[in-house]
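pinging the channel bc i need a second pair of eyes. not urgent but kinda urgent?? the chain im working w is below, pasted from the shared doc
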Amino acid sequence: MSSQVRLRLLPSSRCLFDDPVQVEVAGLRSRQAVTVRARSTDEKGVVFSSAATYRADDNGEIHLDRDPSLSGSYSGVEPMGLLWSMKADTLHKRFQKTKSLNPHVVKFSVHDEEEEEEGRRVLAEADNERLLLGDRVSRIQVSEGNIRGVLFTPPGEGPFPAVLDMYTFGGGLSEKRASLLASRGFVVLTVPLYGHEEMPKNVREVHLDNLEKAIKFLRKHDKVGAKGVGVISLSKSGDLALSVATYLPGVEATVWINGCSANTFLPLYYKKSLIHPALLFDMNKIIYTESGGLIIKNGVHDPLAEENKDTLIPIEKAKGHFLFVASEDDLNWDSQGYVDMMVERLKHHGKDNFESVCYPGAGHYLEPPYGPYCPSSFHAAIGKPVLWGGEPRSHAAAEVHMWNKIQEFFRDKLSCDAEQTKAKL
């Protein structure tokens, strides 16, 4: 490494996963061309990397929030481009970061562009530790009755707004979104719909009763001050969140991200009675691509067809508020169309307890910001890799906006009552 070249990560090399970081290079020759690289390995051992070429200014400095990338994984001024443009070294891999205790480490390095590619020297390097768990945020494994999950609690006495995170993307339990929300001041319980080691292997139906117990668990927590809780979802759990908001008491705010307006794939039960049959999927409508990934957007049956009306969720009965988030380039299913369908239904019933936001150029898999964009990966229900849609730059911008929007929505709708919290103690 060159002793005079410095790679700086500001304001610190250690930050939360959803925090931006400012990358600066100093000590270069005037107008020197270099390649700045980022590299990381996920929980499954898959390597993700990106690279962009920059030219130093007259003072031998590069500022990624000011200077444009000339070529590489992206072009133009993109302060966080090295993070969201990282690609897996293997096709159809999704960045896996589900555990909250270990940070996501990204290795940044600067290489001399004027040397042969294979032999380019490392002029400077630095590690960025991106934490999923904020300072003094509590993490507790929950196994109470039929509730299986992880509870995250911010430091301090509260009261705090409470959120049930129904993360079901690909099955199993992911702590990333829940731990980051807790780091921003929410009490969050994350629960899996299926795929948990203590749950049945072949789930054939879903019961709202278990989620009702999870909501009651949250509302009784000493640090929770709101009269009701929030619910956040993604993909299949989107329609489940609609049913939770419609049929269960104590739900004040629901975030629906790229889901469906009808109950999909698995029949839904409550108090041993069938609430909704499942809206099914037509494998004959799948589009095969040269990459081996499938486009399954048109496979879901039409929920408005007469034979499928019983799968539609009567969200007009919900007493809380909705935030609908849709990606216009979702290739998993017609999220934008489902939002239009739900908005029309609510308006028809004289309801105004909703807001919606749609993102052009974004794909299905919307997550907290600054993780690698995922164009395709294995779909647990289909059993093959699928294309999620979207364009990396637009998708990354959508995640930043969405993440702020979600927090604003929950803070606005989940007002906390300090007196109520004191009464629980």
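so The domain at 6-131 is CATH 2.60.40.2240 (Immunoglobulin-like). and The chain has two domains: 6-131, 139-417. — does that match what u expected or am i reading it wrong
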